[in-house]
Amino acid sequence: MFRKILIANRGEIACRVIKTARKMGIATVAVYSDADRNALHVRMADEAVNIGPAPANQSYIVIDRIMDAIRQTGAEAVHPGYGFLSENMKFAEALAREGVAFIGPPVNAIEAMGDKITSKKLAAEAGVSTVPGYMGLIADAEDAVKISNEIGYPVMIKASAGGGGKGMRIAWNDTEAREGFQSSKNEAAASFGDDRIFIEKFITQPRHIEIQVLADSHGNCVYLHERECSIQRRNQKVIEEAPSPFLDETTRRAMGEQACALAQTVGYTSAGTVEFIVDGARNFYFLEMNTRLQVEHPVTELITGVDLVEQMIRVAAGEKLPFAQSDLKINGWAIESRLYAEDPYRNFLPSIGRLTRYRPPAEIVESERAIRNDTGVFEGGEISMYYDPMIAKLCTWAPTRTQAIDEMRLALDEFELEGIGHNLPFLSAVMDHLRFISGEITTAFIAEEYPDGFEGTTLPRDLLHRVAASACAMNRVAEIRRARISGRMDNHERVVGTDWVINIQGESLQASINADREGATVTLEGQDYRITSDWLPGQPLARLDVNGTPLVMKTGKIPGGFRLRLRGADLKAHVLSPRQAELAQLMPEKLPPDTSKLLLCPMPGMVVSISVEEGQEVYEGQTLATVEAMKMENILRAERKGVVARISVQAGAPLAVDDVIMEFE
């Protein structure tokens, strides 16, 4: 077994590998860029080596810098994680020349399967059903338009060396094909150092289901069942689960056996994933094989009990797999929510900054439930503009899918995160969405259910009343504390009332409260709510029991009440005396400022290009500017017809959120 391994990656996956290596008694070496000097993976590793400036193309994907770190530390093996150099054949070859083990597949398998064009050709030759498309190299944008028309819209434009949603666009017409081709090439070059693009037919109403395979160098290959990855946004997975609520045992076995056959055809060893598109009739089509560990591997580990990182290390050291296919059963259900530094209220645009508060729910492993949080950040750390916006992967496990969803709801409500925009509210909203609960999902779920973006959720009436009753009980605790203030004048004792009005989510609810030593009973709209909690004023998280059911809310003080966040909703609950409520109705409403004639930057980033000129008339949907953030290009379009009055920035300029890009007449 190896004595020391180097992790050629950063963030949560580097931390994940370090945890398993530590469990196995293997020393670890971290590499880091200037931006990651104080990162969590650097703190966790036994050694750490600086490999250059912040941009990945000057540090994490520079093979020579990684090789220098290996020589400095004497590492015997390298785990590449995912992204960066994980599927780079030249990196694997460089390690082989140096006599360093690559904790991944052999070079020929990376070459055959890591390149998406080659892998599709091999799959087709092997008789595997593949999606129609053009596998050759595409010269330019006009060539892309021609090919797209031959295939038939809609088409998927994809980077050959891509992954993680980078370098991917869906085009429904010639204009989108032309723009998507150039953006995909730019993203592919920046993220992978390879700008080759291919185009395939985009199948509507598909499910994205993948098979986890694991193979050793002794001829053994097994599949560890499937993962449902259909909840995606811009081709980036957001929520995954294992197993899939859609597959039956016959389809599962057929997909698994086909995945293993494909892996063995190319002499694959280590962990890998074969991705399929599955239609409504359970016909499946090969998409690609990812020759690395997947981001969403924890859900597979939770339902099988197999540590995939450990098995990758053991396979790289020449060991046999310790189990056969018949040993790998599905135990329970697991769900993973990817927590991103993306603001859902700004159409999921990237957010950067300092994590002023980062308190994930406690990780637990019990017979009937489990919570796991894979992360690479810490409270006080910064989310950088240079890398992927992932903050953490929150996973829950339970015996059934319904129970796993219930556990995820509470875990998301308990997750405290402040300082940046993030998608926690959106993840919570999905857990309550009837279509997700039913399991009737496709890769178009987010686009179909949130066509205008995410604007928060409206709590159902029964839950809203539980929240309102809880706010009333919390207000009583705060009122009692205020009534006990020292230094009062004689005969000026303050009495806490029993009758209150709760203004919340546009409703005005009448309530009365009767408290005792164990808790309080709130009568709201004729319904009694028995509430117990140890919450105290000033605590940012309130855990309550309401009529025997747990309720968790992020809590903040506002004048006359509380800001309450749970289940994707962000509420202001004003708890007022009857007289205060009467007077509050007379207060004028404050209107927001008018920004309708401004194009504001929706995220921190850099201007790639300005597509219009001052004095130019623009039409609805026309491209105005392109802004790059976190390795993704974002095209900003006109919302209506108008004339450009002034352009405030130029290409290459850095921008903060809400910086003015241009003004209109």
TrEMBL record:
<keyword id="KW-0547">Nucleotide-binding</keyword>
<keyword id="KW-0479">Metal-binding</keyword>
<feature type="domain" description="Biotin carboxylation">
    <location>
        <begin position="1"/>
        <end position="451"/>
    </location>
</feature>
<keyword id="KW-0092">Biotin</keyword>
<dbReference type="InterPro" id="IPR050856">
    <property type="entry name" value="Biotin_carboxylase_complex"/>
</dbReference>
<dbReference type="Pfam" id="PF18140">
    <property type="entry name" value="PCC_BT"/>
</dbReference>
<dbReference type="InterPro" id="IPR000089">
    <property type="entry name" value="Biotin_lipoyl"/>
</dbReference>
<keyword id="KW-0460">Magnesium</keyword>
<dbReference type="InterPro" id="IPR016185">
    <property type="entry name" value="PreATP-grasp_dom_sf"/>
</dbReference>
<keyword id="KW-0442">Lipid degradation</keyword>
<dbReference type="InterPro" id="IPR005481">
    <property type="entry name" value="BC-like_N"/>
</dbReference>
<dbReference type="Pfam" id="PF02786">
    <property type="entry name" value="CPSase_L_D2"/>
</dbReference>
<dbReference type="InterPro" id="IPR011764">
    <property type="entry name" value="Biotin_carboxylation_dom"/>
</dbReference>
<keyword id="KW-0436">Ligase</keyword>
<dbReference type="InterPro" id="IPR001882">
    <property type="entry name" value="Biotin_BS"/>
</dbReference>
<protein>
    <recommendedName>
        <fullName>propionyl-CoA carboxylase</fullName>
        <ecNumber>6.4.1.3</ecNumber>
    </recommendedName>
</protein>
<dbReference type="Pfam" id="PF02785">
    <property type="entry name" value="Biotin_carb_C"/>
</dbReference>
<feature type="domain" description="Lipoyl-binding">
    <location>
        <begin position="586"/>
        <end position="665"/>
    </location>
</feature>
<dbReference type="InterPro" id="IPR041265">
    <property type="entry name" value="PCC_BT"/>
</dbReference>
<keyword id="KW-0443">Lipid metabolism</keyword>
<dbReference type="InterPro" id="IPR011054">
    <property type="entry name" value="Rudment_hybrid_motif"/>
</dbReference>
<dbReference type="Pfam" id="PF00364">
    <property type="entry name" value="Biotin_lipoyl"/>
</dbReference>
<keyword id="KW-0067">ATP-binding</keyword>
<keyword id="KW-0464">Manganese</keyword>
<dbReference type="InterPro" id="IPR005479">
    <property type="entry name" value="CPAse_ATP-bd"/>
</dbReference>
<comment type="pathway">
    <text>Metabolic intermediate metabolism; propanoyl-CoA degradation; succinyl-CoA from propanoyl-CoA: step 1/3.</text>
</comment>
<dbReference type="InterPro" id="IPR005482">
    <property type="entry name" value="Biotin_COase_C"/>
</dbReference>
<dbReference type="InterPro" id="IPR011053">
    <property type="entry name" value="Single_hybrid_motif"/>
</dbReference>
<feature type="domain" description="ATP-grasp">
    <location>
        <begin position="120"/>
        <end position="317"/>
    </location>
</feature>
<dbReference type="Pfam" id="PF00289">
    <property type="entry name" value="Biotin_carb_N"/>
</dbReference>
<dbReference type="InterPro" id="IPR011761">
    <property type="entry name" value="ATP-grasp"/>
</dbReference>
